[in-house]
Amino acid sequence: MKKGIAYYNIGELFDYYMLVKAATKGMASNGKPFLTLILKDVTGEIDAKLWEATDEDEQLFQAEQLVKVTGEVNQYRGRSQLKIHSIRPAQPTDGVHPTDFIEKAPVQKEELMERLTEFIFEIQNPNLQRIVRYFIKKYQEDLLVYPAAVKNHHEYVSGLAYHVVSMLKLAKELKHLYPEINQDLLYAGIVVHDLGKLKELSSVATPSYTLEGKLLGHIPIMIEEIGHAAKELQIEGEEVLILQHMVLSHHGKAEWGSPKAPLVREAELLHLIDLIDAKMNMLNRTLDKVKPGEFTERLFAMDNRTFYKPSFED
Amino acid sequence: MKKGIAYYNIGELFDYYMLVKAATKGMASNGKPFLTLILKDVTGEIDAKLWEATDEDEQLFQAEQLVKVTGEVNQYRGRSQLKIHSIRPAQPTDGVHPTDFIEKAPVQKEELMERLTEFIFEIQNPNLQRIVRYFIKKYQEDLLVYPAAVKNHHEYVSGLAYHVVSMLKLAKELKHLYPEINQDLLYAGIVVHDLGKLKELSSVATPSYTLEGKLLGHIPIMIEEIGHAAKELQIEGEEVLILQHMVLSHHGKAEWGSPKAPLVREAELLHLIDLIDAKMNMLNRTLDKVKPGEFTERLFAMDNRTFYKPSFED
Amino acid sequence: MKKGIAYYNIGELFDYYMLVKAATKGMASNGKPFLTLILKDVTGEIDAKLWEATDEDEQLFQAEQLVKVTGEVNQYRGRSQLKIHSIRPAQPTDGVHPTDFIEKAPVQKEELMERLTEFIFEIQNPNLQRIVRYFIKKYQEDLLVYPAAVKNHHEYVSGLAYHVVSMLKLAKELKHLYPEINQDLLYAGIVVHDLGKLKELSSVATPSYTLEGKLLGHIPIMIEEIGHAAKELQIEGEEVLILQHMVLSHHGKAEWGSPKAPLVREAELLHLIDLIDAKMNMLNRTLDKVKPGEFTERLFAMDNRTFYKPSFED
Amino acid sequence: MKKGIAYYNIGELFDYYMLVKAATKGMASNGKPFLTLILKDVTGEIDAKLWEATDEDEQLFQAEQLVKVTGEVNQYRGRSQLKIHSIRPAQPTDGVHPTDFIEKAPVQKEELMERLTEFIFEIQNPNLQRIVRYFIKKYQEDLLVYPAAVKNHHEYVSGLAYHVVSMLKLAKELKHLYPEINQDLLYAGIVVHDLGKLKELSSVATPSYTLEGKLLGHIPIMIEEIGHAAKELQIEGEEVLILQHMVLSHHGKAEWGSPKAPLVREAELLHLIDLIDAKMNMLNRTLDKVKPGEFTERLFAMDNRTFYKPSFED
Amino acid sequence: MKKGIAYYNIGELFDYYMLVKAATKGMASNGKPFLTLILKDVTGEIDAKLWEATDEDEQLFQAEQLVKVTGEVNQYRGRSQLKIHSIRPAQPTDGVHPTDFIEKAPVQKEELMERLTEFIFEIQNPNLQRIVRYFIKKYQEDLLVYPAAVKNHHEYVSGLAYHVVSMLKLAKELKHLYPEINQDLLYAGIVVHDLGKLKELSSVATPSYTLEGKLLGHIPIMIEEIGHAAKELQIEGEEVLILQHMVLSHHGKAEWGSPKAPLVREAELLHLIDLIDAKMNMLNRTLDKVKPGEFTERLFAMDNRTFYKPSFED
Amino acid sequence: MKKGIAYYNIGELFDYYMLVKAATKGMASNGKPFLTLILKDVTGEIDAKLWEATDEDEQLFQAEQLVKVTGEVNQYRGRSQLKIHSIRPAQPTDGVHPTDFIEKAPVQKEELMERLTEFIFEIQNPNLQRIVRYFIKKYQEDLLVYPAAVKNHHEYVSGLAYHVVSMLKLAKELKHLYPEINQDLLYAGIVVHDLGKLKELSSVATPSYTLEGKLLGHIPIMIEEIGHAAKELQIEGEEVLILQHMVLSHHGKAEWGSPKAPLVREAELLHLIDLIDAKMNMLNRTLDKVKPGEFTERLFAMDNRTFYKPSFED
Question: What ipTM goes with this model?
Answer without folding.
Answer: 0.87
